[in-house]
C-alpha cells in the first residue's frame, strides 16, 4: 500500500492584481507526493484562505484541518481518491473553504495515479477514447462596445465556432448599454459563430431585470445565458429559464456549486439546460464526474468551467471525456502569464477547430517550475509563534508537521 507523504500548496500571483472578473491573476497550485510518484492540481480559490484551511487548528470534530484527512492515507486506486474526498468532507464539514482546497488535492491525486499507472485520468474514470470537444473562446466584454466588437472579430478570425463574453458591468447598468454590447459582439462575430453570454450573477434578487433582457438575447441569437443569479436562487432560475427557452435561449449555471448535492439540486430545481461545473471548486475530478454522469442521464448538457491555466483545463475536461463528440467546452483565451505559463505544455485548438483531451499519463500537462518560481508568494502561517505552514521547497519533499496531521 502506498501512503501519501506530502501535500504542498504554492501561492502564485501576478505582481499587481486588478479589481476585474479575471481569476487567472493568481493561482493556488497543489503538489501531492506518495513514494516515487507525484501529482499536480489547481484550486479555483483564494490562495491564502485555502492554505489556511489546510492547516487551521481544529475547532471541533467537524471543523478539522484538511491536511489531517489526507496525509498518510493510502493512495492506490481511484476508489482511494473518492474515499479521501469523503473523509475530508466529513472531517472539515464546517470549514467552508475546505471544498476549494480539497478540489486541488483531488485533482493532484488523480494526476498522481495516472502518472503512476501510465494512463490518462479519464481512463481511471472508466473512459477509453476521449471525445473531442468544440471549444468556445471565453473572454470578458470590452470596456466599450467598440472593444467588444474588435475582440469578437479577432476570435472569429482565429476560427472559433463559439465565443462567450461576460462580466465587465454587463447587466449592472441599463438595458440599452447591454443591448449595445450584444449588438457589438454579434456584429464582430458575424452570423455563423455562436454567441454565449455570462451574466456574472448580475441579477441577484432582480429576476425582472433578467427577464427584461430576453428579447435582446433572442434578437442577437445568444445560444445560452450563463449565471444570471447565484446558484441557490432555484426559483429565479426556473422561472427565467422557462421564459428564455420560449425565446430560443438556453440557460447555463453551476460553477458556484461546491459539492455534488448542491449541483444535483440546482440542476433539477433550477432546470438547467447546461450544467457548468468547475473541477477546482466542486471537490475535484471525481466529484465533477458524478455530476457529469447525472447530467447525461437527465438529458442535460455538461460543461466545464475554466478560466485559468491549462492544468485546470485538462482537469475540467476529464469528467466528461466520454460524452458525445464535439460538445462544447470552455476554453480560456486571455489568461494572465502566471496562469498561461504555469505549464510547459498546452492543450491546443487543432486545425479542425476541436480540442482533444490529452492521452498522456495523468493530466497530460507538466508544471513549469520556472514560472512557479517567478510568481511564487512566500507564505508563513503561525499561531502563538508555532509555525503551522511555510511555503515548501519546489524540489524537496517538505517534512509534514505531525502535530497538524494529528
From TrEMBL:
InterPro entries linked to this entry: DgoD-like, Enolase-like_C_sf, Enolase-like_N, Enolase_C-like, Mandelate_racemase_C, Mandelate_racemase_N_dom
Native source species: Dactylosporangium salmoneum
UniProt keyword terms in alphabetical order: Lyase
Record-linked Pfam families: MR_MLE_C (PF13378), MR_MLE_N (PF02746)
SMART domains tied to this protein: MR_MLE
The name this protein goes by in its record: Enolase C-terminal domain-like protein
Chain ranges of the Mandelate racemase/muconate lactonizing enzyme C-terminal domain: 145-247
Lineage: Bacteria, Bacillati, Actinomycetota, Actinomycetes, Micromonosporales
Source species, domain of life: Bacteria
Amino acid at each position: 500500500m502506498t501512503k501519501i507523504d506530502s501535500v504542498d500548496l504554492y501561492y502564485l500571483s501576478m505582481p499587481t492584481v486588478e479589481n476585474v472578473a479575471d481569476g487567472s491573476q493568481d493561482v493556488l497550485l497543489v503538489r501531492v507526493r506518495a513514494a516515487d510518484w507525484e501529482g499536480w492540481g489547481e484550486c479555483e480559490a483564494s490562495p491564502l484562505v485555502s492554505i489556511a484551511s489546510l492547516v487551521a487548528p481544529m475547532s471541533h470534530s467537524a471543523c478539522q484541518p484538511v491536511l489531517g484527512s489526507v496525509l498518510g492515507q493510502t493512495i492506490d486506486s481511484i476508489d482511494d481518491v473518492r474515499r479521501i474526498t469523503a473523509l475530508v468532507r466529513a472531517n472539515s464539514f464546517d470549514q467552508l473553504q475546505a471544498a476549494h482546497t480539497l478540489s486541488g488535492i483531488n485533482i493532484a491525486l488523480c494526476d498522481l495515479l495516472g502518472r503512476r499507472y501510465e494512463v490518462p485520468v479519464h481512463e481511471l474514470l472508466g473512459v477509453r477514447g476521449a471525445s473531442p470537444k468544440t471549444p468556445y473562446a471565453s473572454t470578458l466584454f470590452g470596456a466599450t462596445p467598440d472593444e467588444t466588437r474588435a475582440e469578437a472579430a479577432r476570435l472569429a478570425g482565429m476560427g472559433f465556432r463559439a465565443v462567450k463574453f461576460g462580466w465587465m458591468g454587463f447587466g449592472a447598468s441599463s438595458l440599452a448599454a447591454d443591448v449595445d454590447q450584444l449588438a457589438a459582439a454579434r456584429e464582430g462575430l458575424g452570423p455563423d459563430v455562436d454567441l454565449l453570454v455570462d451574466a456574472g450573477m448580475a441579477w441577484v434578487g432582480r429576476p425582472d431585470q433578467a427577464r427584461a433582457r430576453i428579447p435582446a438575447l433572442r434578437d442577437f441569437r445568444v445560444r445560452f445565458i450563463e449565471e444570471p443569479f447565484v446558484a441557490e436562487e432555484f426559483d429565479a432560475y426556473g422561472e427565467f429559464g422557462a421564459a428564455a427557452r420560449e425565446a430560443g435561449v438556453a440557460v447555463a449555471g453551476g460553477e458556484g456549486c461546491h459539492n455534488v448535492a448542491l449541483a444535483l439540486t440546482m440542476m433539477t430545481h433550477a432546470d438547467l439546460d447546461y450544467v457548468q461545473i468547475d473541477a477546482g471548486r466542486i471537490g475535484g475530478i471525481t466529484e465533477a464526474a458524478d455530476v457529469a454522469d447525472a447530467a447525461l442521464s437527465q438529458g442535460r448538457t455538461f460543461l466545464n468551467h475554466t478560466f485559468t491555466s491549462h492544468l485546470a483545463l485538462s482537469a475540467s475536461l476529464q469528467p466528461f471525456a466520454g460524452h458525445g463528440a464535439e460538445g462544447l467546452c470552455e476554453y480560456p483565451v486571455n489568461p494572465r502569464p502566471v496562469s498561461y505559463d504555469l505549464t510547459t505544455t498546452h492543450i491546443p485548438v487543432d486545425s479542425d477547430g476541436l480540442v482533444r483531451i490529452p492521452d498522456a499519463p495523468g493530466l497530460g500537462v507538466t508544471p513549469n517550475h520556472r514560472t512557479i518560481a517567478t510568481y511564487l508568494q512566500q507564505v508563513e502561517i503561525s499561531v502563538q509563534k508555532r509555525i503551522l505552514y511555510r511555503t515548501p521547497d519546489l524540489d524537496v519533499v517538505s517534512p509534514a508537521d505531525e502535530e497538524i496531521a494529528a
